[in-house]
Amino acid sequence: MAKAPAKPEVAATDAPAPKKSKLMIIIVVIVVLLLLIAAALVGVLLLVKGKNSGDSAEATPAVQAAPTVDLSKPPVFVQLDTFTVNLTREETDHYLQAVIVLRVADATIGAQLNGFMPEIRHRINLLLSSKMPSEVSTMEGREKLAQEILTQVNSALGFNPPAGAAPGTAVGPVQGVLFNSFIIQ
Q: Which InterPro entries does this entry report, sorted A to Z (predicted)?
């Protein structure tokens, strides 16, 4: 008689197994359906976005002509130490104190500039000390000075402007020169 009760226990453990497998199948089907619905929504959104951007580009061509800023690649700036130089003497002694920041193409260029920093600082010091106060006291004079610094820095890095290049064209990894402070006394 001991064998008879053993059979119902085995039968009891076999019965829930099909219920668990049915439950797993239902869960898998629901998850697959949710993924299909999500994929369909993403596809519809992309199609709607594509249609809207195509319509707005045809309707307003002036908006396309404006330069856009790529926020995924923020600009990289390298701040140089403060420059203090005596300016070329006009009537009395004047000195210039300037804080200069270089805008570079990317972060790797910014890191590599440290190897060239002694030559870059030397060239900028020579350029600044060769100026008269009257040359750098106007906005046009400062803009011209910034372009001359840009040319000197790119030249120190081995990027000389071509013969027919327009003045102010950034030819090299340094794209701009900014003055954070500019004091003449």
A: FliL
